[in-house]
Each structure stands twice: as C-alpha cells, then as structure tokens.
C-alpha cells in the first residue's frame, strides 16, 4: 500500500515575464522527499492485547493482527487496536497525514446484523484535530454472509496533518486507531487479519 502513497505538491505558475526562481527555491521532486525512520512503535486496545506484528517502513507499513476477533452477543462485540508511531528523518518543511486505511479480514453476519468500522487518526501534538473514517458491512438478505472482506476507508479532504518537520525530520507521534463493532440480533463474528495504510505528504 505504501507504494501508492500520494504526494501533494503545491507550486506557483510563472508568467512569461516573471523572473525564473533560483534552483534552491524549487519544490523538490518526489524522489527527494526522505523516508522517515521509525524510532518507536507500540499498540494499545482490547483488539491487540497481544501485540500485532509490524513489518515494512514508515511509507510502506503492514500490521498483522494476532487476536482481533469480535463476536456478538458477548463482551467482545466492539474491539479496537491503536498504533502509536514515532519517526525521524523526514525532509524539513514537509508534513504527513493518513489518506487511506485498508483492513482485510473475515465476517460471519446472519440476516439483520452488521459490522460498523471506524478509523481515527491524529497526532499527539494536537490531539484535538482528528480524522475519523466510517464504513458498514450489513446483511439485509435472508442467508448468512460468511466471507472475506476488504475494508477500505479514504480520508478525502478531511485529514489530520502532522507537525511540520524541522531540521531533525521529526513528524510527531502518529496515532491510528481501528475499531470494529457488531450490531443486530444473531451470532455475528468479525476477525481483522491485516491493516495497511497510505500516507500523503505536503509542503508546510
């Protein structure tokens, strides 16, 4: 997923009579934006009582869950797992945000039941600015749904941006919380297997 990371570059269009800007003032190409190095990663929530496995890099991440299984009725109808990630080495003058979250798993939904899922992202340096993405998988038919699912949530224009990276390339503490909640009557089940996310960069 990280290979699909989006890059937002804002630039001014010069007129034919304007003086050319010096090379040092030009917006760097995508290849010049450094990939941050992860310095700390931790998990919290009842959906990851046993730490998931994290692989990949800051721009190409993958989380494999070990015990994210919600069941209804019961005490585990709603589960969440939140990742807390810190990194340094980003290009100065850039900031990052979650643009898409993808969770793969499996559902068992009898008629009249549903899975509601939410992804909330924010940076601890300004926790009041959050982005919450919502989706639903529901069974309105007459038979039980028992199948794999891919839950894709796009932020669109509603993103929570990191602090602007300084000379140390620090992007703050990024938090991404995925939550699944089963509703309705019947014995429903949801298991999250993997989570991946795409990031977007912009000048700040």
From TrEMBL:
It comes from Achaetomium macrosporum. Residues 1-20 form the signal peptide. PANTHER family: PSEUDOURIDINE SYNTHASE RSUA_RLUA-LIKE DOMAIN-CONTAINING PROTEIN, PTHR38847. This is Secreted protein. The lineage of its organism: Eukaryota, Fungi, Dikarya, Ascomycota, Pezizomycotina. Keywords: Signal. InterPro entries: DUF4360 (IPR025649).
């Amino acid at each position: 997923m990280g290979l699909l990371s989006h890059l937002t570059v804002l630039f001014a269009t010069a007129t034919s009579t304007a003086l050319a800007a010096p090379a040092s003032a030009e917006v760097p190409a995508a290849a010049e934006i450094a990939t941050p190095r992860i310095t700390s990663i931790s998990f919290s929530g009842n959906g990851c009582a046993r730490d998931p496995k994290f692989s990949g890099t800051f721009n190409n991440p993958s989380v494999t869950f070990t015990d994210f299984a919600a069941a209804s009725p019961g005490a585990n109808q709603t589960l969440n797992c939140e990742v807390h990630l810190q990194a340094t080495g980003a290009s100065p003058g850039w900031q990052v945000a979650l643009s898409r979250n993808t969770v793969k798993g499996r559902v068992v939904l009898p008629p009249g039941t549903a899975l509601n899922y939410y992804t909330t992202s924010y940076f601890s340096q300004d926790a009041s600015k959050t982005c919450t993405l919502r989706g639903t998988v529901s069974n309105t038919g007459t038979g039980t749904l028992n199948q794999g699912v891919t839950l894709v949530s796009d932020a669109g224009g509603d993103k929570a941006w990191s602090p602007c990276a300084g000379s140390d390339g620090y992007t703050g503490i990024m938090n991404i919380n995925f939550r699944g909640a089963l509703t309705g009557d019947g014995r429903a089940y949801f298991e999250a297997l993997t989570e991946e996310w795409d990031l977007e960069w912009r000048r700040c």
